[in-house]
Amino acid sequence: MNAAETEYGCWVRIGSYGQSTCERLPEGGCRDCPQFQVKGLGLYDREPPEGYAGEWTRILAEAKPPLEQDATSVLVFRIGQEWLALRTARFEEIIPPRPIHTVPGLRSRAFLGLVNVSGVLLPCMSLAEILGLSEPAAEAIPAGSARIAGRMAVVAGQDGRFVLPVDEISGTHRLAPGERFQAPVTVSRTPRHFSCGVFALRGTVVGVLDEDALFPALTRSITG
């Protein structure tokens, strides 16, 4: 048993946050397991580490930088060699990779199959196929973001909910109107009808996806 299992529990080894092989694993994941819930409640009874209260007192007392009133929160992620962004409000959750169940009879290259998310089967779509992106890995955004590799994003739009496998997640960014520019053809490989601009993030060009074009395309791609 490693240090992570000792501190946290079986969910990092055989549960939702591990290999997902636990025989008691309910449809909703470890969140519905009594053992997980008891361990979680125990976090409130822990003694804070030394200096914790003083550190947060200092942080909360510091002057806060002014926020752009018209700024939009976006989540930055990577598909193949392209860094992309979509409004954070469109993301319901980020989950570890889960089995994709193929659907016989459907021949769409963009529709990968169905994924079980909290007991609901959602269509899993290849964003790389829809956007026509190449596969080689991109140059990573420089240090400064807590990157998470190999995840599935559950997104919701006007045309329903979808699961999108992503290669890497950089985190959220408050995108001010003055940061966004029209995407030059030579910079972004994303088809222009899926893009509503680009912005620079730590030296890397990030394409902003047009959700009004993206979600209808996801729906069409299930049978296309």
TrEMBL record:
Domain CheW-like per the UniProt entry, residue ranges: 71-220
InterPro entries registered for this protein in UniProt: CheW, CheW-like_dom_sf, CheW-lke_dom
Localization of this protein: Cytoplasm
GO CC annotations, alphabetized: cytosol
GO biological process assignments: chemotaxis; signal transduction
Keywords of this entry: Cytoplasm
Top-level taxon of the source organism: Bacteria
SMART domains: CheW
SUPFAM superfamilies: CheW-like (SSF50341)
Record-given protein name: Chemotaxis protein CheW
Protein's organism: Desulfolutivibrio sulfodismutans
